[in-house]
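Study this:
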Amino acid sequence: MSIQVNVLEAKTQLSRLLDRAEAGEDVIIARAGHPVVRLVPITTGALDTPRVLGALRGKGWIADDFDAPLAADALFTPGADERRRR
């Protein structure tokens, strides 16, 4: 089931609307009759799972020459194009 309430009503009955959303009801808050937001419960599965350190180990890499100097032609020099044209 779905319920649509205006902003003023949502302000005065926020606790009740939160309870209804947690119960699975679709709660939509409207401004001047136009739907703006939907209240939905947050699923706790992802929030309750502890993080595992090192879970992404081996998934990425950095090239051996990552911090090597760039070639001169790869560098940007402001105004270089204008100087070449002269």
Q: What stands out?
A: The chain has a mean pLDDT of 87. The helical segments are 7-12, 14-22, 45-48, 80-85.
